[in-house]
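Page 37, continued from 36.
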């Protein structure tokens, strides 16, 4: 068994399950063998090249397997490796954006003092609202900087959206290796796409391992926050298990998520229905669907994810679709991660880094998919060459999954472009529709009756349980708590008086000093960046930079200027115009990315990912104003 602690057959098996791009990269980093650099990417290798790569890796691992981690290579070497990994010449912007994705550092993306830590005033404290992914990451950022903080969480454990969403078959739909946090390097996912309960377990683990859990007050719900101009502090009214409490914060960070408030649709006759109505974010633990007639209204990521599992249990399943969705398959979705792959991650230095990097690589180059190409359109194309090709591929997938059943295909094929809405991942949805006990209903819902749902054509669909997978009130940022800034202005009132929620780089609002939002308005990058959890890290690091600047300069407040906020939002509106989501091809009114009331982008940032990322990594300090307590407001 030698150095490896496992036999040759085991390593060979590991190679069969491994990502060969990651194998090639890790092996090259360990050996420097130029023949490996000359190999094409795995998908373009001949059988002979693949076999020989596996053989070389088995030989090397048998003699050299080790649990040590590789140090981060210097810039030139890292850039060479990254270019080799995805077979492209990386521009400086892309290199800077992606370099920490390799996660050789202990705390990629996060910031640390470099020997010049100022004294932190004894009453300085950050309060973070929410202990989902973003709240936990922000807490780790504070911890790294040695800045006192407390997390308040209305639930009784960390988890955020993963705590409230416990519907059948809930799981991540981006591969777990990219969804995990880059500073926690020891978690080994049970499945390639982790189930909800494992994501909760993971976040709990991260929270405890990095000391956040002990600084979290569970069962604490913020109801009202007001900025006290005299003291420069936020005064927080918090409901706690022991009654209302007043807390004070030097800096307030909201990490309450985009999907905190379920959208409850007031269907006519809803109250008449004698069966059970359930929103997925309020799934009753003891709900059994066995032998029942079940409806699922909605085919966003949530509705699509659960139908396969529901159809397995229910006697009859009715899928109510208002708008067709583009639904794509994912490689290894629903598959367990092989123990041999876990072994590689633990014993093949560099393998975990490159497996993670390569798993995220398809996200790097998605900008072309979301932008229209007027020249292409003038020649008769729908959006642009890659978008149109994707449309063809997805249409072919629908054809395959439904066995060519036109009665389904004609009703589920969207008439707008892919990627204009949030991509939805197939979890056996099309297959479920082909079952004898599953019915697709596309006639509009007219009303609920005592026995079920009546559609516009007059048909009554008898039902026992209706699942309303109708989404979330994404436009209600920070709701239901209220936030009063300078002059007693409430943030929702301010937004409502204009054209809905806006922010500067999704994080700051003028008149609300020392307040930062994680996942604020227009902050979800539309393309070409890392997975969402890494954005939480990037945003938290930006707040970390602001905290460092405040403390270094002895400032008591930091605030975005109104001019910067307005100029940024003007530019954002212009940049949005080119996005397919905002055009006829994207079916503009059919989209939660879009604020239909005001006809503008509300959830996404329209910028090319690396450009948006740079706004956080190298903040425009001219956009913010720092003041000492004694200075009056300008
Ligand atoms: P969603 O994408 O907003 O979808 C809501 C669905 O309900 C749509 O099909 C919508 O139809 C339908 N609907 C809304 N109001 C309706 C009405 N009055 N009558 C009939 N149908 C109605 O919400 P979601 O599926 O909960 O997903 C929200 C987000 O959560 C996702 O985009 C994703 O970011 C996240 N998510 C992630 C995962 C994951 O990673 N595993 C899983 C689930 C959700 P229209 O299209 O016609 O509006």
């Amino acid at each position: 068994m030698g150095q490896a602690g496992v036999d040759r057959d085991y390593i060979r098996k590991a190679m069969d399950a491994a990502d060969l791009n990651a194998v090639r990269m890790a092996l090259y980093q360990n050996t420097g063998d130029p023949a490996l650099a000359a190999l094409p990417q795995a998908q373009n290798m001949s059988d002979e090249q693949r076999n020989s790569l596996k053989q070389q890796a088995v030989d090397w691992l048998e003699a050299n397997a080790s649990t040590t981690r590789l140090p981060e290579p210097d810039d030139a070497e890292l850039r060479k490796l990254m270019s080799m990994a995805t077979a492209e010449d990386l521009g400086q912007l892309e290199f800077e954006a992606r370099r920490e994705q390799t996660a050789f550092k202990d705390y990629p993306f996060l910031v640390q003092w470099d020997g010049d830590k100022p004294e932190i005033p004894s009453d300085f404290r950050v309060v973070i609202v929410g202990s989902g992914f973003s709240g936990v990451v922000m807490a780790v950022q504070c911890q790294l900087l040695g800045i006192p903080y407390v997390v308040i969480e209305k639930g009784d454990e960390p988890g955020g959206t993963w705590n409230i969403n416990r519907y059948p078959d809930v799981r991540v739909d981006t591969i777990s290796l990219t969804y995990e946090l880059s500073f926690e390097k020891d978690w080994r996912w049970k499945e390639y796409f982790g189930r909800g309960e494992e994501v909760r377990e993971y976040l709990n683990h991260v929270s405890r391992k990095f000391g956040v859990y002990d600084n979290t007050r569970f069962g604490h719900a913020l109801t009202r926050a007001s900025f006290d101009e005299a003291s420069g502090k936020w005064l927080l009214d918090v409901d706690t298990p022991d009654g209302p409490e007043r807390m004070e914060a030097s800096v307030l960070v909201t990490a309450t998520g985009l999907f905190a408030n379920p959208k409850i649709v007031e269907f006519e006759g809803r109250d008449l229905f004698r069966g059970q109505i359930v929103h997925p974010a309020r799934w009753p633990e003891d709900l059994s669907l066995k032998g029942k007639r079940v409806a699922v209204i909605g085919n966003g990521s949530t509705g699509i994810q659960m139908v396969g599992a529901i159809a397995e249990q229910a006697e009859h399943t009715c899928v109510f679709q208002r708008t067709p969705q583009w639904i794509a398959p994912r490689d290894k979705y629903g598959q367990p991660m092989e123990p041999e792959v876990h072994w590689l991650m633990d014993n093949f230095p560099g393998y975990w880094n490159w497996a993670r990097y390569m798993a995220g690589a398809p996200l790097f180059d998605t900008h072309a998919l979301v932008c229209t190409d007027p020249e292409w359109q003038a020649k008769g194309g729908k959006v642009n060459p890659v978008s149109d090709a994707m449309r063809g591929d997805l249409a072919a997938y629908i054809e395959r999954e439904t066995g060519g059943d036109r009665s389904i295909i004609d009703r589920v094929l969207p008439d707008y472009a892919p990627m204009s809405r949030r991509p939805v991942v197939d979890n056996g949805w099309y297959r479920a529709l082909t079952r004898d006990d599953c019915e697709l209903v596309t006639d509009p819902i007219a009303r609920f009756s005592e026995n079920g749902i009546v559609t516009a054509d007059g048909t009554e669909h008898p039902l026992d349980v209706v699942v309303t997978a109708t989404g979330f009130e994404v436009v209600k940022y920070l709701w239901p708590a209220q936030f009063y800034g300078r002059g007693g202005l409430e943030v929702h009132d301010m937004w409502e008086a204009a054209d809905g929620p806006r922010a500067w780089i999704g994080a700051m609002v003028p008149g609300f000093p020392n307040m930062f939002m994680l996942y604020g308005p227009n902050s979800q990058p539309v393309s070409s960046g890392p997975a969402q959890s890494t954005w939480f890290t990037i945003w938290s690091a930006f707040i970390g930079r602001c905290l460092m600047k405040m403390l270094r300069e002895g400032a008591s407040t930091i605030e975005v200027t109104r001019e910067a906020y307005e100029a940024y939002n003007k530019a954002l509106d212009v940049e949005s115009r080119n996005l397919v989501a905002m055009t006829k091809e994207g079916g503009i009114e059919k989209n939660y990315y879009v604020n239909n009331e005001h006809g503008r982008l509300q959830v996404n940032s329209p910028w090319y990912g690396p450009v948006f990322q740079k706004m956080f990594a190298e903040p425009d300090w001219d956009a913010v104003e720092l003041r000492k307590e004694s200075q009056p407001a300008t």
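The two ends are 72 Å apart (CA to CA). Flag for discussion at group meeting. Residues 171-173, 259, 265, 297-303, 305, 322-323, 422, 445, 469-472, 590, 592 surround NAP (CB under 6 Å).
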